[in-house]
Amino acid sequence: MVFEIIAKDSKSKARVGKLTTKSGVAETPFFMPVATKTTVKYISIEDLETMGAQAIICNAFVLSFRPGVSLVKNAGGISGLSTFKGIIFTDSGGFQMYSPQLYVRSKEDGVIFRNPFSGEQVFITPEIDMDIQLGLGSDVAMCLDSMPLIEESKESIAEAVRKTGLWAQRCKLHHDNRQIENGEKRQLLFGICQGGVHTDLREQSAREIAQIDFDGYAIGGLALGEPKKDEYKMIETAKNVFPENKPIYLMGAGEPLEMLEAISRGVDIFDSRFPTKNARRGNLFTSKGRIRLFRAEYAEDKTPIDTECSCFVCKRYSKSYIRHLLRQEEGTGKRLASYHNLYFLQNLMHKAREAIKQGKFTELLDNYRKINTENLK
After folding, report:
1. Rounded to a whole number, what is the largest CA-CA distance in the chain?
2. Which of 331, 343, 214 is CA-nearest to residue 284?
3. Domain range list for the chain
4. What is the SS3 string spanning 20-34?
5. Residue 94's pLDDT is what?
6. Catalytic sites, residue numbers
7. Do the bridges between strand 103-106 and strand 87-91 make them parallel or antiparallel, or are there none, so unpaired?
8. Which residues does 283 contact at the CB level (< 8 Å), separation at least 6?
9. Most buried of the four, 92, 183, 221, 350, by CB within 10 Å?
C-alpha cells in the first residue's frame, strides 16, 4: 500500500498518513526543503537530518544537464550521490515555465526550454521527462505539466489544462512501461492538476488527472501570489475530486499558516523555496509570527530568534549577531537563518501530526490564525 491514513481530525479534513516508497516510509503531513541541485542552499545533508526532514525535492530538469543523468545514475541515484537517506521527490520542470529565462514555448508534444548553463534550446516531451526522472532514481517522480502564469487569460489557462491532461496520460503510460522493462524498484508517479484560480478549469483538470491511477496527486499553479481565499478555494475544489485514499501534494506552499490551512483541507505534502529565500533576506518564522531581522530594533537584540524554538541556532545565537552576518552577506548568516526557518517548519509539521492524532488540530490552526492576525497589525 502506497498511502495509508492512520488518523483523521473530526472537525476538518486534516489527516495523518504514511507514504511508503522504495527508500522508506514518511509520515504525512510533511514539508520538503527544496534541493534543486541535490542540495538546499547553505544547508548540508547533516543539517537536514538533524532538523528531521523526511523528504526533499530536487529539480530533474536542472540535474539532467549538470551533473547529468548518467553520472547520477552511476552514483546510485540522487540518494547515492548526495547520501540523503530520506525520501526524494523530483520535479518535472513544469515550474520552469514560470521562468522567462528558461521557458521558450510550449508545443503540442512538449516544452522547449533553454539549458540554464549553455543557453541552447532543448525539447522535453513527457516521455523524455519520465526517462530523466527514472534515471535519477528518485522515489517520487512528477508528471510533466503545462504551468500557466496567474495573469494569463482564461483561454490560455484552459489550453494549459488540456495539455496537462494529455501529457499526464503519456507520462503514466511511458513510466509504467519503462519500469516493467527495467524491473527496478518501483518509483512512484504523481499527477498534477492545473486551472489557475478558475473553479471550472481546476475541477476539470482534477477530474481528468483523477481518472488516471496515479500514486498521488498534486495541486499545481498556486501559492504564486494569488489571494489566499482563491488558493484555498482551489485546494477544496481539487480535493473534492481526488481520491480520498491517495496523498495530496500542494506544490510551492511554504508559509506556516498557509500550510496549516491547506492541511485542514486535506493536503498531505508541501514544498517551497519561500522559507530559505526569505531567511536569506532576514525574514524569519517565530512562534509569535514572522519577524524582519533587518529592522533597526534588532540591531542590538541579544535574544534568540524564537525563545520557544529548540534549534541549535536559537539555543546559541542572538538576533543581533545573525542580523550582522546577513547584512554583511556572510554565508554563515545565511546558513543559520535558513536552518532556523526550515527547522521551524519541520517542527510545525510534527506539531500538526501530533495535534491531529490527539484531536487538537483545530486549536493549533486557530492559534496560528490569531498569531497571523496580530502580526499584520
Report:
1. 63
2. 343
3. 3-272, 273-367
4. EECCEEEEECEEEEE
5. 63
6. 91, 271
7. unpaired
8. 290, 291, 292, 293
9. 221
